[in-house]
Amino acid sequence: MQAIVNISLKEGVLDPQGRAISHSLNDLGFSEVGDVRVGKQILLEIDETDPARLRQRVARMCETLLSNTVIEDYSIDIPDEQ
Amino acid sequence: MTLSALRVAIIVFPGSNCDRDMMVAIEQLTSRRPALVWHKEASLDAADLVIIPGGFSFGDYLRCGALAGRSPIMNAVLDHAARGGAVMGICNGFQILTETGMVPGVLIRNAGLKFSCRNVGLRPCETLASPFTAGLDLGEDLTIPIAHNEGNYFADADELDRIEGNGQVAFRYAASDAGGPVNPNGASRDIAGVLSSNGRVLGMMPHPERAMSKLHGGTDGAKFLLKSLEALVS
Amino acid sequence: MTSASDVMTFENAATMGLSRDEWDLINQRLGRTPNLCELGIFSAMWSEHCSYKSSKKWLKTLPIDGPQVIEGPGENAGAVDIGDGLAAIFKIESHNHPSFIEPYQGAATGVGGILRDVFTMGARPVALLNALRFGAAEHEKTRHLVGGVVSGIGGYGNCIGIPTVGGEVNFDKSYNGNILVNAMAVGLANSDRIFRSAATGPGNPVIYVGAKTGRDGIHGATMASAEFSDETESKRPTVQVGDPFTGKLLIEACLELMASDSVLSIQDMGAAGLTSSSVEMASKGGLGMEIDLDLVPAREENMSAYELMLSESQERMLMVLKPDATETARAIFNKWDLDFMPIGRVTETGRLILLKDGGTACDIPIGPLVDDAPEYDRPHGDAPTRKQLASSDITNDAPITNMLKTMLGHVDLASRRWIYEQYDSQVMADTIAGPGGDAALVRVHGSKRGLAMSTDCTPRYVEADPKMGGAQAVAEAYRNLSAIGATPLAITNNLNFGNPEKPEIMTQLVESVLGMGDAARQLDTPVVSGNVSLYNETDGKAIQPCPVIGMVGVIENVDDAVGNCFVAADQDIFVIGQSDKADDGWLGASIYQQHHGDDGIYAPPPLDLVAEQKTGSFVRQEILGGGISAAHDIADGGLAVAIAEMAMRSGFGAEIAVPKTGNLHGWAFGEDQARFVVTTADSQALIAAAKEAGIEITKLGMVSDQGELKFGDNDTISIADLNAVFEGCIPALMAG
């Protein structure tokens, strides 16, 4: 089964990349763009069929490695979950 | 104990680049070659100082220092620190220390979004008791090179107040003869180096091993390292 | 979509860049029609990039010998004896077309590729340099390209842990559609432990190591052999993606393996990947190879034989090991987490046999791939004659300092700090002189000896007079190395030209190579390696020709080297190579002319190679003897700019006497060659030494601790003001 982890910066953490992107978009004529924040998405192929167990395991992965919980938040999406 | 009796271990990860540079620097000061310890080792021989050098361990993948921080050897380094052992993390080493929680805060992308390699001024701060700052004069700034893309020190305001209150800020960026902006990367409160709450672990972004002689980078790196090593001897 | 079973026709060959004659020759040599895979292999090996078919004839006229040469052109890189049983291994290579399409990855993989050429010979790389040409500053793509290329070079070089210590950057509208990205790497090896690529020992295992193979860059070699047009955008998939982390692991693993006694021959997989490496290794050894393509580590599924052979996935090497060394080697590569796969063996058949899916995907003789590669004698003529420019035709009465301010604040001369501070110039802790100096200087680890290096070319001179320009690139590099006190040893060259099928472009190539050869012979700097990049044209408009010279030299003791900034107030400033009667200068083809003259192409300054050698040697000798405290060669912008450059970075000022007759701007900004500005603590001794050596020398003035530059009695500018425009130009350009 696939799990999709979305990692984003916590509110209040400065995002210089996001800021630069926002300025670029404005300069390109997209003046309607305000705040931009950049995160990352990690796609995991996992040998597990039970979505609940999968979610639990992936949360552990996030806590242990995938997300720096000091400055990042994560969310887990399991596309095949009903 | 004399300097040459000091046991120094330098951890090497795949992608570490400054291990040899640090080994040469320590040997220059102590006349004893430090041990290079491969990251897959499960244990660490007794050491007076463990150094985590600069570079791009694991290519900086996922986050700088994230993968190195979870390497087998780091358990032994954490134990060493828990027992009051001394640890110094330089640049990528600092990033690894924050990833493992040995020092507070986190290093994020430079505010200017560009890699920056140049000399910066470094001001020693008044700190809790620490071998890394005991020998430094508060009034004497150092000039030491930086070379990084993710050296922007960050912690939230409460955390910053706490570590400042505790005397855990070891260095701040200061003006230098080299010119250029004082703060090279947007680091909160100009913080360039941070100590653990027991003062025995130091993380810093600048590279003292690149300032070891007049001909090569100036001697402030040698001065700082020597003072630290001398403090560890006594 | 062609498949292996389709019958190949000339149309297929033409798509791959082959001519009718080349197609006929292939059929003739095989005695049959090639299949898709075989045709792909021929087209890659016979591409301009791999076969040098348009330039080979002329490259053969270059001097390649000397007592200092250990390995000349033909190997992965050149090797030169630097004393103490050590060799400097170096080469320069281009990655122009990919960098225009995808600047970050194009530049990054250029760095990765040149590093592999060096460490494949057993040398630990110790320095990187790069020579970059971008379009006009105001061109819409320039900022994006500069940003991408500089990030890419830094991104790869910094991560792999090798310092980027020097280089050059020019801007000109002729590069608007074709930027040039040339990367040079220098490494060190023991002279008696240099590894070469000739396969040896029939039956020996052929091993693939490094990253897995994907579909990157297929036909990258043929892309590099073609002009751009509107179709270029769609070529994005052919750009390779580099991984400097894997590159670093590969260096460590290979050097560790080479230290054990296991490697017989080794070559990196660069342009045309597995094709060029297997064919060249077998060809040099006069042998054959049999490879089982099913064994090649692949990261994509269902890759065809054609794709596996032509993929330009990065960070891969091909090796022939001693028969019993396989397990030792495997353990080393496993430690570094790299793929290690025996994929075939060396044979005696002289043929390249590729097996796949239980059958034979390719069975061709190796000889024709290399020996029958076409060699053209393309038509060329005489270079155009150019008028000489009289200074008075373009000069005016403005104060020298006014001109300096505008010139130093222009991209042609402004500080490149914005660029080079993105490169780690100090990792490995042996950089004595990094970017900003006349030449870079890297200490040979653990010794006092230093390696000096520089890249140079003045494209506008080459365009004006290709023979002079080709020679001048060598002369300027020679001056740059001499200016720090180093003895030049040898050169690597990167020829960047337009479409060689046009006689006027071929003329540029031929003449500049001939000029380069003259200079290399006179200055005793043989060519030991190099690269050619042709078809740098867009919609028929060619670049300013740019034959880049990368020069390497040595200084016995790095403590003796000097820099190019004033070091102390009250020291006298001299110009070496100029008489005290001089009161004008050569402004034709100068930076001054570009800014204040017309767009015409005028004759560039004359080059006297004997004078270059004499003055360069004199300056070097005085530096080593302590008679010169700082030195700077006079190049773009002439004398006044050289003086300003020595002042700005030092913070010291200067008082300079100016002639009362002649043409002041000509004197200040003329680009007459074979000259240096130097400072000394002992003027009498320097003057006497120059007299004895028969070298012209003129006192210009004195270093001052007033923070200003003063020309004559009244013309002053503060160093702070100069620095503001000098340092501010490129950051302002890049900020948009």
Query: Biggest interface and which pair forms it?
Result: B-C, 30 and 31 residues
Uncertain stretches of chain A: none
Q: In which range does the helix fraction of chain A lie?
A: 25-40%
SS strand fraction of chain A: 15-25%
Estimate the mean pLDDT confidence of chain A. 90
CATH architecture of chain B: 3-Layer(aba) Sandwich
Give structural attributes:
heterotrimer; A: 82 residues; alpha+beta; 24% strand; B: 234 residues; alpha/beta; two-stranded antiparallel ribbon; 6 helices; 11 strands; 24% helix
Describe the protein's topology.
The complex is a heterotrimer of chains A (82), B (234) and C (736).
Chain A: E1 2-9, H1 16-27, E2 40-45, H2 51-66, E3 72-77
Antiparallel strand pairs in A: 1-2, 1-3
Chain B: E1 8-12, H1 19-30, E2 35-38, E3 49-52, H2 66-69, H3 73-82, E4 86-90, H4 92-99, E5 106-108, E6 116-124, E7 142-148, E8 152-154, H5 157-165, E9 169-174, E10 191-195, E11 201-204, H6 220-233
Parallel strand pairs in B: 1-2, 1-3, 3-4, 4-11
Antiparallel strand pairs in B: 5-8, 6-7, 6-9, 9-10, 10-11
Helix pairs in contact in B: 1-6
Chain C: H1 10-15, H2 20-30, H3 36-45, H4 48-51, H5 56-59, E1 69-71, E2 78-83, E3 86-94, H6 96-101, H7 103-119, E4 124-134, H8 142-160, E5 164-171, E6 180-190, E7 205-210, H9 220-223, H10 244-259, E8 263-268, H11 273-284, E9 288-292, H12 305-310, E10 316-321, H13 326-335, E11 339-347, E12 351-356, E13 359-365, H14 366-371, H15 400-408, H16 417-420, E14 431-433, E15 440-443, E16 450-456, H17 459-464, H18 466-482, E17 487-496, H19 503-522, E18 527-533, E19 537-538, E20 541-542, E21 546-555, E22 572-576, H20 591-596, H21 609-624, E23 630-633, H22 638-648, E24 653-656, H23 664-669, E25 676-680, H24 683-693, E26 697-704, E27 708-711, E28 715-718, H25 719-735
Parallel strand pairs in C: 4-5, 9-12, 17-18, 24-27
Antiparallel strand pairs in C: 1-2, 2-3, 3-6, 4-6, 7-10, 7-11, 8-10, 9-11, 12-13, 14-15, 15-16, 16-21, 17-21, 19-20, 22-25, 22-26, 23-25, 24-26, 27-28
Helix pairs in contact in C: 7-8, 7-10, 8-10, 10-13, 15-25, 18-19, 18-21
